[in-house]
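Supplementary Note 3. Input sequence used for the single-chain structure prediction.
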Amino acid sequence: MIEPHAPAPPGTTPPRGGRARLPVRPATGRFLVLACVFVCAACGLVYELQLVALASYLIGDSVTQASVVLSVMVFAMGIGSLVAKRLRPLAAAGFGAIEAVLALVGGCSALALYAVFAWTGDWGGMWGNGPRCLLVAFSLTIGLLIGAEVPLLMELIQRIRRQDAGGAVADLFAADYVGALVGGLAFPFLLLPLLGQLTAALITGAVNAVAGGALVLGLFRGDLTRRARWLLVIANVTVLGVLASAAVLVDDFERAARHAVYGRDVRVALQTELQEVVITGGTHGRPLDLFLDGRLRVSGRDERRYHEALVHPAMSGEHSRVLILGGGDGLAAREVLRHPDVHRVDVVEADAAVVRLARRDPPLSELNGHAYDDPRVHVMTGDAFRWLRAAPPATYDVVLSDLPDPGITASTKLYSQEFYGLARRALTPHGRLAVHAGPVSSRPRVFWTVDTTLRAAGLRTAPYRVTGRDSGFAPGPDRSAGPTAAPHDWGFILAGRGQRPPLRLGAGEGTPRLVTLTREGLVADARAAEGTRVGGLGASTLVHPRY
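The predicted structure, written as discrete structure tokens, is reproduced below.
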């Protein structure tokens, strides 16, 4: 049994090494400290993950954003631990203050990032103004505060009952790592799907404030002066009030921010299991725009030129069975169905909600010509890579890859040598594969890497491009140019299993009349694309992505 100790003089903190004055037994006190460590660790990891997730959505390139957030945060944690050594004589008060600040900063970080994204329109460099700079600032601040927790918690747990340093570290880190596991699993499987990023961050901040405040004000209140106790109470109540107010107003904030990003013509906005889907326009003569995770994927101003260029060069030849990878909006299927001798069209789309919108949203279904009402069209929901692995060989005369740009990290595997090898296996001996490969003029290295990768998979290629007639289609894989920017052209690659497929648009009875393309223009644009060729590029693979 631990001997009682003399109380510290009123208004002072017991000297380091002295026993804390606890309202509970030491064993219970240790348990409560470790429980607080568990909760704070879970909250800290949620802050990290929500910064990575939101930055990937707002800025793009999730690998880069994750690297920036985690590296800056880990560095800052080390600095925070060093700085916190000076606070060890005031461990209880210092820990309480740090948790209140961490709850406020971490809880409001997602709101602040989204606000800058929505209202400033600043897409400067990594160290410039805008979301990237704010991302680094939040990562640094949160890392400093998380790092400062460990020395103070070590001091508090030792003040309850002295033990060897190795044992104390083992107990503390065990609670910390288990809490991090729970936070890491709760974010993608519970918080994000049920609450969304903004509300999840606010609730996490509130939990953090309650845990830190309850530990200090409940267990270690004897170590605090009367003034310190009141200051901590006021600080925590203020933080909880700010977070609660923000949670109540978060829906209004999100609507206002969405209007700032997309304009006031937002007609559909929903968060699916995979992405945010927003549709603007499509009524009263306004062109329809479809955004997926903030990136413009379809523009009614110029979508026909894109989809005619993707589909019809590949349809020159046998095309009774067609596979569309992506293209859940139904626009590529609309162009395929213009060929009356098509017998079957299989669409593999990762997000079932996009297909439902394409079926049920009147302006979008009108734009796609009600393609999903055609009995020849069959929809499969799932990952295109996984689906191709199970597809029977030599099944399709035409495969159309209508996927996001290769520079988007989530789609990199769908532009890999392995993926194109699976697509090649699914083609008939004289089949053709058409790939959307991103803009040529602004990102030639990416475009020609796709070409190199297709050739490495055993396909013969015919690269081509078409120029856009206005600035309204599919911005690239990052948001560096702003939400309304668009490339000057769209690059495509036509590939075949045997000889190099010719670039032509078909002729004769039954060939649809195209609105935007001619064979002469297609050949001229292919010559122009060839002039941008970048040599010496390697193929992109699953283990060595090059985009």
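The longest strand covers residues 427-438. The radius of gyration is 29 Å.
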